[in-house]
């Protein structure tokens, strides 16, 4: 199992053969963070950079998994650990998600994790996808997606799972659940998240066609809440977060939970069946063929 080493104001996760202390989820051992006394606490693992300003209570979580921030098993594991740590940190009240990569928020799930691997690997990967969605959709703290680039499929799901979405007003960018274009199917909880955001009819069109929306179209259907010039995405997200944090935490948190808990509970009630469905589906020859063709198409586009 890959080691996760966080340096500076950070924590360290190591494989089970290098046990240093107990108590961390995901089968990894964590040494919890040692923070310096100033107001900014930074930690940077290989794929997720966290910068918490404890004077404002705002944490910025940056995806840094070049070239396209695809969500591999390692990425998802580091991501969920970072969110868990922030959720437990009393000095953090809100989290902004954004990308350290130019032009790309996230290319979605790492297709290589779903292609040519064993059923056991597919199951482990899918559980980590469920974990990140359950963590984000039910997150106790306020979350904003600062979408500074392309955001297909899993990237769009992560943005949809936040409380508010601000996107760079660059007409070249696209966001949406495009799974059907890969010959795969967004599972029911991706669909629920979309329906809860844009409504049933728009989700019908969106999911069946696998539509990818320009920022202005995404704003029209309510897939994002606000467009701003590219260079202002993070600044606007920070200002917006400050406004939201004027609301007492417990009142906002209970309201969010009332609205989202039924959706979260649907997956919690059927996690194992959902994992089995995924493994059966993705192991089919026809699905493997579709994913292989899609990967080839991505590579050939460059030539
Ligand atoms: C009965 C019901 C049962 C239901 C069961 C469930 C079914 C399965 C559900 C699965 C849900 C899936 C969710 C997903 O997120 S799938 C991923 C979807 N993502 C995409 O379609 C995005 C693809 N990528 C792009 O469009 C472009 O890369 C992008 C616009 C993001 C960036 O373009 P750019 O030109 O800047 O970069 P390149 O295309 O050259 O890419 C650079 C390299 O990165 C590789 N790449 C890109 N995206 C991915 C990815 N998602 N996973 C893995 N690898 C990716 C690309 O191939 C290039 O690689 P090379 O440098 O080696 O050529």
From TrEMBL:
Pfam family, one: ECH_1
Statement: the UniProt record of this protein carries the keyword Transit peptide: yes
GO cellular component terms, semicolon-separated: mitochondrial matrix
InterPro entries: ClpP/crotonase-like_dom_sf, Enoyl-CoA_hyd/isom_CS, Enoyl-CoA_hydra/iso
Reactions mediated catalytically: (3Z)-octenoyl-CoA = (2E)-octenoyl-CoA; (3Z)-dodecenoyl-CoA = (2E)-dodecenoyl-CoA; a (3E)-enoyl-CoA = a 4-saturated (2E)-enoyl-CoA; (3Z)-decenoyl-CoA = (2E)-decenoyl-CoA
Predominant localisation class: mitochondrion
EC number: 5.3.3.8
This protein's pathway: Lipid metabolism; fatty acid beta-oxidation
Biological process, per Gene Ontology: fatty acid beta-oxidation
Subunit structure: Homotrimer.
Family per similarity comment: Belongs to the enoyl-CoA hydratase/isomerase family.
Described purpose of this protein according to its UniProt entry: Key enzyme of fatty acid beta-oxidation. Able to isomerize both 3-cis (3Z) and 3-trans (3E) double bonds into the 2-trans (2E) form in a range of enoyl-CoA species, with a preference for (3Z)-enoyl-CoAs over (3E)-enoyl-CoAs. The catalytic efficiency of this enzyme is not affected by the fatty acyl chain length.
Stated name of the protein: Enoyl-CoA delta isomerase 1, mitochondrial
Organism encoding this protein: Pangasianodon hypophthalmus
């Amino acid at each position: 199992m890959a080691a996760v080493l966080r340096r500076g104001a950070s924590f360290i996760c190591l494989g089970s053969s290098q046990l240093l202390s107990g108590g961390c989820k995901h089968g990894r051992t964590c040494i919890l963070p040692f923070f310096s006394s100033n107001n900014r606490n930074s930690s940077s693992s290989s794929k997720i950079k966290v910068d918490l300003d404890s004077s404002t209570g705002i944490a910025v979580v940056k995806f840094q998994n070049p070239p396209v921030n695809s969500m591999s098993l390692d990425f998802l594991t580091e991501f969920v650990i970072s969110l868990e740590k922030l959720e437990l940190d009393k000095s953090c009240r809100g989290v902004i998600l954004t990308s350290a990569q130019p032009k790309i928020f996230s290319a979605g799930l790492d297709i290589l994790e779903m292609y040519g691997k064993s059923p056991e690997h597919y199951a482990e990967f899918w559980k980590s996808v469920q974990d990140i969605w359950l963590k984000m959709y039910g997150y106790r703290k306020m979350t904003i997606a600062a979408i500074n680039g392309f955001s297909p499929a899993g990237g769009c799901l992560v943005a949809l799972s936040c409380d508010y979405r601000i996107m760079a007003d660059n007409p070249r960018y696209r966001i949406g659940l495009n799974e059907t274009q890969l010959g795969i199917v967004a599972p029911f909880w991706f669909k629920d998240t979309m329906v809860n955001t844009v409504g049933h009819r728009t989700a019908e069109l969106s999911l069946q066609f696998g539509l990818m929306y320009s920022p202005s179209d995404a704003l029209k259907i309510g897939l994002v809440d606000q467009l701003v010039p590219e260079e202002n995405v993070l600044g606007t997200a920070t200002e917006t977060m400050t406004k939201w944090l004027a609301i007492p935490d417990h009142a906002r948190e209970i309201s969010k939970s009332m609205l989202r808990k039924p959706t979260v509970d649907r997956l919690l009630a059927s996690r194992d069946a959902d994992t089995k469905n995924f493994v059966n589906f993705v192991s089919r020859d026809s699905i493997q063929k579709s994913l292989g063709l899609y990967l080839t198409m991505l590579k050939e586009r460059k030539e």
